[in-house]
Amino acid sequence: MIPIVLTVVTIVIPFASLLVLSMEGKKRGVRIENYILALLIVIFAYFCGGWLYSSVYLKYLLAFVFLLTTVFYFKKRKKMAASLASNAKIWNRKRYYGLVWKVPLIAGFTFLCYIYFSSRIYPEPSVDIQFPFKNGDYIIMQGGGNKYMNIIHSENTYAILAFDIVKLNSFGGRARTVFSKDNRQYEVFGEKLYAPISGKVVAMKRDMPDNVPPDANQDEKAGNHIVIQNGNTFVMLAHLRQRTITVKQNELVKAGDYIGDAGNSGNSLEPHLHIEARQTIDGVTTPSAIKFDGGTYTYNDLIKK
């Protein structure tokens, strides 16, 4: 149900705002507050929309349509500044009442955009590791440097900086449909995983069955998982596919070694990889921000391999 709702909201709201914008521009000319509101809605939808449930390519279509709308909006104006100054003088009761609800919306979407862009700022120290997948296009399904963009992980002290990652198919979606009960419909299910760091396997579990979406095993949060220790750094890869883990407890692995397949075990609604890092210094364990191959990522970022 959630993927369907997110898909509808992501597509309908921004495109509808552009439709209303162009219709109004044709009738009464540009009004700066309407243009700003539409711009903020499009920016927020572009970066924060649930595009992976349908196709990430749709957000590029949204950007293109917005540019066309902007051109249409101002095509008869010699100078945008002159047009805006002219329309700024058009004050009437109807427009005043419109501002009563538009200004709070503008403020709200401005704050939401701020939350997104600030999620790229992570606390130090961070851990720089290899991306655990090869060959394909991947997207951060959940993650970010603040609790608002990483809300699902915010309840777990050690997972507040974790990432959930899925793979995209050739159509830009994470599955062949918006929602499916078949794990094999999800592109990331069964995808090979490689050790993100060199170190020692200090914990693992491999025999838990994969869930049927959207069921989740609340009793075994991590499901099939591997924890690799390198000095005072611990990296966990969770929700792996049943009986695909190739390493054993206390085994030494090198970064890039094949260690198992992505799955849907544990507290997981659908196939994805959960990865988190922790550091223990002077007996105190804290969550660590993760960089992949030197890059900093947040929610909805694409990673091409």
How would you portray this structure in words?
The chain is α+β, with helices and mostly antiparallel strands and 305 residues long. It has five helices and twelve strands. The strands form two sheets. Strands 1, 2, 3, 5, 6, 7, 8, 10, 11 and 12 form a ten-stranded mixed β-sheet that branches. Residues 26-30 have low confidence and may be disordered.
| Tally of contiguous helical segments | 5
CATH-defined topology of the largest domain: Glucose Permease (Domain IIA)
CATH superfamily of the largest domain: Glucose Permease (Domain IIA)
What is the approximate shape?
Answer: elongated
- Number of domain modules: 2
What's the N-to-C terminus distance? 31 Å
Major pleated sheet: 10 strands, mixed
The beta-strand count equals 12
Uncertain regions spanning at least 5 consecutive residues: 26-30
Q: Taking all residues together, what is the mean pLDDT?
A: 87
Classified by CATH, the class of the largest domain is Mainly Beta
Q: Any idea what the radius of gyration is?
A: 23 Å
CATH architecture of the largest domain: Distorted Sandwich
Beta-strand content estimate? 15-25%
Q: What's this model, at a glance?
A:
The chain has helices at residues 2-28, 32-48, 57-74, 80-87, 93-118, and strands at residues 126-129, 137-142, 163-168, 192-194, 199-205, 224-230, 233-240, 252-253, 258-261, 273-281, 284-292, 302-304. The chain has 305 residues and is of the alpha+beta class.
What are the salient characteristics of this protein?
about 300 residues; alpha+beta; Glucose Permease (Domain IIA); two-stranded antiparallel sheet; 5 helices; elongated
